[in-house]
Amino acid sequence: MKNEVMVEVSARHIHLTQEQIEVLFGKGHQLTVKKELSQPGQFASEERVTVIGPKRSLERVSILGPARKAAQVELSKTDCMSIGLKDVPVRESGDIEGTPGVTLKTEFGELTLDKGVIVAKRHIHMTTKDAEEFGVKDKDVVSVETNCDGRKLTFGDVVVRVSDSYALAMHIDTDEANAGNISGDVTGIVIK
Fold first, then answer.
1. Rounded Cα gap, residues 110 and 124, in angstroms
2. What is the pLDDT at residue 140?
3. Residue 67 CB coordination number (10 Å)
4. What is the value of pTM for the model shown?
5. What is the structure's pLDDT at 38?
6. Is the four-CA dihedral 48, 49, 53, 58 of positive or negative sign?
7. Which CATH architecture has domain 122-191?
8. Which residue ranges does the chain devote to CATH 2.40.40.20?
């Protein structure tokens, strides 16, 4: 049975609808691919935005493409506190009801989101075949152990997300990566 997974650090980023992209960058604007990501069809774009919170702003935050059905701003808990957002919930991607909003600004435009800011729940993307090999199913919760230069850490509450459009990888945020001294190519051990 398989038990190793690549652990990737997901830094602060934003997902936007096509309409929101056009408000921020101009009518008809399409995101420009800067770097392909590990998940098939996903990319970091050249475009950047400023995220404006109650206390301060985060400059040059990456937009991930392609466009989505709803806006989502994924920040670490440290990011949220630094810009003055309190009680931002830890959520799975797409679960944005009851979350705070922020203002997004570029040199071309500005828009205020009434919701959409989350701290992303740590998760593992798997295909159906991967899930079978790991002996898990969609929405199972597992733990993942890492050991990087004297910072051995077990991440609990890791949600398994299964779709044949995914590629096998675990995603954590920068706060979690810093706690485990995780950077570069890191492999974790999945514990059921």
1. 34
2. 97
3. 17
4. 0.94
5. 94
6. positive
7. Beta Barrel (2.40)
8. 122-191
